[in-house]
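Input (structure):
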């Protein structure tokens, strides 16, 4: 592998110096992306406690964005200064890990490179994840019991279903059930029976002594009848027919 030529190094030096001047100007002119002043100085308020929560959310987002931009600019400036120092020392173009020449193509694409591609510290991405994910995954946390066939008790998923049934920010297009036709059936496993095992248990009832059997014409009952399940012992819903209604009594003239 050939080492970087002198004229190539001079070209890269000018490019690095030009980028360094630009970054220093940016950081100076905008006060390190506004981080040199307090938030209250930017909003003009003595306190932001009385602001609308939406306004506070916007300010928080903008502050986080400014921190990220400032950190990126400072890291970029630090890498440029390190590369220029290596040029002054005469070690630019040589890998700091193995001592072998860095390919000119790599230096043209990344003038701040101080390592060859094989020994680059940033060769592999950071796989570290937030510690909170240890408690949040799998979904519904560590209390989900769906994977255990012998368990049929209240778990984290059931708790989420209760909360989600009161509404969320999803639209019908994002529902777990693609056939959901209203917001009441959009939450996770909305069709799952609650408080009963078989559909018939939800509308068939007796008294305290197991007698006087009756049923309720609720949604589960109507779906049960529409599917034609069970034996045909249940009375179907009456259908109103205006032609079969009893005739009105004759008018005796005293009405």
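Output (sequence):
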């Amino acid at each position: 592998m050939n080492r970087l030529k002198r004229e190539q190094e001079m070209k890269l030096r000018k490019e690095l110096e030009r980028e360094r001047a630009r970054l220093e100007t940016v950081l100076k002119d905008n006060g390190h992306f506004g981080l040199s002043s307090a938030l209250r100085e930017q909003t003009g308020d003595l306190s932001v406690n009385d602001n609308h929560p939406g306004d506070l959310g916007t300010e928080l987002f903008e502050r986080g964005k400014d921190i990220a931009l400032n950190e990126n600019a400072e890291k970029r400036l630090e890498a440029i200064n390190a590369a220029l120092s290596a040029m002054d020392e005469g070690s630019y173009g040589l890998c700091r890990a193995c001592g072998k020449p860095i390919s000119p193509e790599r230096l043209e694409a990344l003038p701040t490179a101080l390592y060859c591609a094989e020994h680059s510290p940033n060769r592999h991405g950071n796989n570290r994840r937030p510690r909170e994910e240890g408690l949040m995954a799998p979904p519904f946390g560590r209390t989900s019991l769906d994977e255990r066939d012998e368990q049929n008790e209240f778990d984290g998923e059931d708790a989420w279903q209760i909360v989600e049934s009161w509404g969320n920010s999803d639209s019908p297009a994002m529902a777990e059930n693609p056939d959901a036709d209203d917001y009441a059936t959009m939450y996770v496993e909305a069709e799952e029976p609650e408080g009963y095992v078989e559909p018939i248990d939800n509308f068939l009832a007796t008294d305290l002594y197991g007698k006087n059997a009756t049923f309720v014409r609720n949604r589960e009952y109507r779906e049960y009848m529409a599917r034609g399940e069970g034996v045909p012992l249940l009375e179907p819903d009456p259908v109103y027919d205006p032609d079969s209604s009893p005739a009105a009594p004759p008018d005796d003239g005293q009405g």
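Notes: The chain has three domains: 6-119, 134-185, 194-239. Strands lie at 204-205, 214-215.
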